[in-house]
Amino acid sequence: MAPENPDPLVRLEGVRFAYGENEILKGVDLTVRRGQVIAIMGGSGCGKTTLLRLIGGQIMVDAGRVELAGRNLAEISRAELYDMRRRMGMLFQFGALFTDMSVFDNVAFPLREHTDLSPELVRDLVLMKLNAVGLRGAERLMPAELSGGMARRVALARAVALDPMLIMYDEPFAGLDPISLGVIGQLIRRLNDALGATSIMVTHDVHESLEIVDYIYFVSEGRIVAQGTPDQIRESQDPFVHQFVCAEADGPVPFHYPAGSLDEHFFGKELRT
Ligand SMILES: Nc1ncnc2c1ncn2[C@@H]1O[C@H](COP(=O)(O)OP(=O)(O)OP(=O)(O)O)[C@@H](O)[C@H]1O
């Protein structure tokens, strides 16, 4: 685990956000210290991806503040925001690879796009990143020739190609078999520590997260409802946390999306006597 570092890289204070009339976040406070790997968990649609998009500066808060490296994202210039975003690696929703490019070109893509490095240097950096995810020999393969776990590792190599200060993962374990899941989890931790980065991941996989993260936040109904280190979470008596750790279908996190009664929905009021 990374050494304790009191300096926050990311700080959210009283963050509120709505899509139109639909208020998603109702006052979120959250801190990520430099060097940490943290997980954000919560039921489907509770606003986890929205939190990542706010931290990434893709959308702006309605109230409260999002600070990155001590700077309020709402107050910096467009150029500074662009610069900040270049220093973030993002792996969103399966980290889809460019299917018509080789593994090498996929990882080289951000380097070619955002730097003027010579082809030789790009080559060395790509091979280093592929080596870090255990796929140095696979650089000529096309995405269609990769297993799901390998493709995810290539996406990881691409996300860290520019040595980001902050890496954000949205569901990095989705769709993986148990072995690949463990490999990706360990890689997320190792890459974070080797790069001296800070990582935030949104995931439903509490057990894998408990193995690799420093801290976990649980989100529900627009607020942080529980938080703690893996040891605190394992010992927690909080019903919300318990539902997650024990994978119970129902509890404080409802199984059903809010809807009217089945009768109303299927038959319509007018058909009922
Ligand atoms: N661009 C958008 N416009 C309007 N509503 C949106 C938009 N993006 C997300 N939402 C709504 O905001 C809510 C939160 O979405 P978000 O994707 O942040 O949730 P989540 O916690 O990541 O969900 P999941 O775990 O299912 O991926 C959902 O109800 C969703 O339907």
Automatic annotation (TrEMBL):
It holds the Pfam family ABC_tran. It comes from the Bacteria. Residues 10-246 form the ABC transporter domain. GO terms for molecular function: ATP binding; ATP hydrolysis activity. This is ATP-binding cassette domain-containing protein. Coiled coil: none annotated. The lineage of its organism: Bacteria, Pseudomonadati, Pseudomonadota, Betaproteobacteria, Rhodocyclales. InterPro entries: AAA+_ATPase, ABC_transporter-like_ATP-bd, ABC_transporter-like_CS, P-loop_NTPase. CDD domains: ABC_Org_Solvent_Resistant. Keywords: ATP-binding, Cell membrane, Membrane, Nucleotide-binding, Transport. The keyword Transport applies. PANTHER family: INTERMEMBRANE PHOSPHOLIPID TRANSPORT SYSTEM ATP-BINDING PROTEIN MLAF (PTHR43023:SF6), PROTEIN TRIGALACTOSYLDIACYLGLYCEROL 3, CHLOROPLASTIC (PTHR43023).
